[in-house]
Amino acid sequence: MKKIIPIATNKPRLISYLFKYPKQFVLHAIGGIVYNTTVIFGAVFLGKTIDAANLVNNDEAPLSLFYLYLFAFIASTIFFQLARYVKRLNSRAITNLMNRDIRTELMASILNMPMSDLRQEKIGDLMSRIIGDVEQVSSSVLTTVREIWDTILLILSYFVACMLFSPKITLLASIPIPIVVVLAQLLRTPLYKLSQRTRKVASGINIHLQHNVSGISLLRLFGLERSDRRKLNTLLEEQLRWSVALSALQGGATPLFMLIAASGIIVVVGMGGENVVNGVWTVGVFTAYLGMFTAMTSRTPSVARVMNTWHGAKASWDRICAKLQGNNDDNLCKSEVSLRASEPLLQVNSLSFRYPFSDDSGVHAISFTAQSGEVIGITGPIGSGKSALAAALSGLFPYEGDVFVKGVPLRELKEQRSGIISYMDYEQFVFSADVVFNVALDRDYGDISPALELASMTDDITTFENGLETKLMERGLRVSGGQRQRITLARAWYGQAEILLLDDPFSAIDVSMEQRIMQNIRSSLKNRTVLLFSHRLSTFEMTDKVIVIDKGYISQIGAHHELVQHDGLYRDIYHAQRFMDTGN
């Protein structure tokens, strides 16, 4: 019987982020403790100031006593407000730093996610987690960290001070407080479910907007604007419904909590007023006690609010952790393996691959060798598996079989792979940034001019309004399809990579330009190896070897001049393309 190995989980703990910044946390804690323990002196000195005013008015005390207590009241207020400033400043710093760290780690997890998993993700959902969910969590942390001192410690400080005045009144009047806490805890499950549903709907809206903004030209072309507005309106109405339900549960409970907590004031007024009538308390003492007890009970709903906030934020934190858990240190390993120069640059043995979650049959049992300085053309009919083979050799996807780079398995190269293999995929994506960024991608390999010259982009750049600093705009709208293709070719060539995988690099380029670029590649090749995946054979005469793929399998291997002389798929494709180009 096959042994089932449990999957280890390493769900991050949110509290660990708090202690990453001990300086800010200690200053915040000190400020919170000082503020919430000295704030009671404001009420005490206010009561004494009122009593001193009565004594002075009755000529029972000098005026200086009144000014003394008034000064103590003002000085204590300034002191604890300064402590409050220190507390709030550092609590905000902590949450801002946490916000930055969580987003950075979440993005790192996404960047290191296996491509087979990443292809399942929706951009709108990932953006919702990175922005909305992180903001929800950081906002909750800010509230909680602040209320740790502003509520819990403050309630304890006021409770102790009230107990010193009258234990009996304090204990009787405080009975409603634990009732509020219990009721808040009972809302945990419904708040979590409503928050989870609200965040899920928000992700759906982001996904919808991202898809439709990307395809806005199609919506206009086929007259789907009204249909899109109806769909968006349906999603927004659903979000409104769940948000209102969440707000109603969170906000609607607050007045109830306040009413329950404040009911103890009835006991204070009744029993405290009796103490004043009986001469046990002065008016100043009663005023001070009433002020402190009122302040204590007014903070009780904050305990419930913090609990409710966390119940809601937990849904966002769980959504974040679902992506953070994929951040395995093994994926971030920076140790380099030693390549063996005596081995072939690229050795492929029985390679099989197909795109994850795709019906495409991919490639099967592919084997060949590529040496330094070779240009290898890989061709075949549309759907034969050319792009699948390029994707497999990029190392971005899991595959079956063996691929060795100078004797080292491609799977073991990890981050080292990007310095050895450069991949220009068929999508030829460009950022909205300028030409320099789109070629260099912040890789500091020196001047980008040789790469642009190889791609025959130098003359085109001179016609751009801002030259190399010209912004390409979203999806490269500012440049033509051929220019975008040549910019991505320059990106692939730029740098130190020894293996270049060029998937359909000339589909948007005319034949004369294609010939020129291939001549540039041959003259600049040196010890690099180029694998050129294309269904166009116009430049395959310049290759050292041609691999023909049919239905996912290698059907022919040989030099161009050999393959055109023998019956087979390559000869058929070559003559068909010549007939289309020349008519004979």
Observed structural traits:
single chain; 584 residues; alpha/beta; ABC transporter transmembrane region fold; Rossmann fold; 2 domains; 6-stranded mixed β-sheet; 4-stranded antiparallel β-sheet; 21 helices; 60% helix; disordered N terminus
- Quickly count the domains: 2
End-to-end gap:
66 Å
Question: Within the CATH hierarchy, at the fold level, what is the topology of the largest domain?
Answer: Rossmann fold
Structural class: alpha/beta
Helix fraction, binned, reads 55-70%
The unreliable regions are 1-9, 326-333
Mean pLDDT over the residues: 82
Counted by DSSP, the helix tally is: 21
CATH architecture descriptor text of the largest domain: 3-Layer(aba) Sandwich
Approximate strand percentage? 5-15%
Q: What is the number of beta strands?
A: 10
CATH superfamily of the largest domain: P-loop containing nucleotide triphosphate hydrolases
- Characterize the overall form: elongated
- What is the class of the largest domain in the CATH system? Alpha Beta
Rg, alpha carbons: 36 Å
**Biggest β-sheet: count, sense, barrel?**
6 strands, mixed
